[in-house]
Write a structure and sequence with these properties.
Strand content: 35-45%
Shape: globular
Distance between the termini: 37 Å
Number of helices: 7
Largest sheet: 5 strands, mixed
Order of helices and strands: EHHEHEHEEEEEHEEHEH
Number of domains: 3
Structural class: alpha+beta
Strand order of the largest sheet: 4-10-9-8-11
Radius of gyration: 26 Å
Number of strands: 11
């Protein structure tokens, strides 16, 4: 027999977490005030409670909405379901639509009215590195054999380590769905389509593309909260999974409030 699908209740934290509101939320979700205050801290949607069935979760969500909070529910399977991502390598702007192209030559056309949300974020990448260092070694035994004349030799040693890098990304959600998106990665784009506007910096090029996309998709909500997180907020080893869950929660939060 399959295990029941857990249903989460999530909310977008309020601008001001007043003491009275925190107490009311704590009562609704059956948590202590300290834990509730932590859940309401920050700017991203947070999962505040878990239930065994949809009926219980929706009941709690309604009570939170009565308090003025944008609460919504989502099944655990829905939250963890991989998003169907079309990873763009280049693109072409044609009037009221954009043609995205991936590395395999596949295309995806999106009209100006189809995108409802653009998320900008950043991901911390860790890569294995290996450098070669040249060190000087003194040969004491050979020095004695050579009448006290110092014998010096150089030795090359390989040193392994890990280096960190930050990469910006953008996801465009179409047809009001959290399961399909077009993704643009700062370090994986061919920016030659920018022509004279192409700069030596990938960060500048990425921002130029993003600005152009916002012009083409004026109806889309732009959210850059994931781009403002510090490295302390997102450990590199959890960066990818953190990204996926938070993109899904952000998208769902906009869907339920539209």
């Amino acid at each position: 027999m399959d295990a029941p699908d857990i249903v989460h209740v999530a909310i977008a934290p309020p601008i001001k977490s007043e003491a009275n509101l925190i107490e009311q939320v704590a009562t609704v979700i059956n948590k202590d005030i300290y834990e509730t205050r932590l859940l309401l801290t920050g700017k991203l949607p947070r999962i505040v409670a878990h239930y065994q069935n949809m009926e219980s979760a929706e009941s709690i969500a309604r009570k939170l909405k009565d308090l003025g909070l944008p609460a919504f529910v989502c099944r655990d399977s829905e939250l963890r379901k991989p998003t169907q991502i079309f990873r763009a390598h280049t693109m072409e702007f044609k009037g009221n639509e954009v043609i995205f192209k991936d590395n395999g030559g596949h295309e995806r056309k999106i009209a100006a009215t189809e995108v409802f949300l653009i998320i900008k974020g950043r991901i911390n990448i860790q890569a294995e590195t290996e450098i070669t260092e040249t060190k000087i070694r003194w040969g004491a035994t050979l020095m004695l054999m050579a009448s006290g004349i110092p014998y010096i030799r150089t030795v090359k040693e390989k040193i392994s380590g890990r280096s960190g890098q930050t990469e910006y990304f953008a996801r465009l959600y179409v047809k009001e769905s959290s399961e399909q998106s077009v993704e643009i990665l700062q370090l994986h784009m061919n920016y030659s389509f920018l022509g004279a506007k192409m700069a030596p910096s990938s960060v500048i090029n990425f921002d130029t593309v993003l600005m152009k996309l916002r012009e083409v998709f004026p109806q889309a909500t732009f959210d850059d909260r994931l781009a403002k997180l510090s490295n302390m907020d997102v450990p590199p080893e959890k960066s990818r999974s953190y990204l996926e869950v938070n993109c899904k929660l952000l998208c769902l939060s906009y869907l339920v409030t539209k």
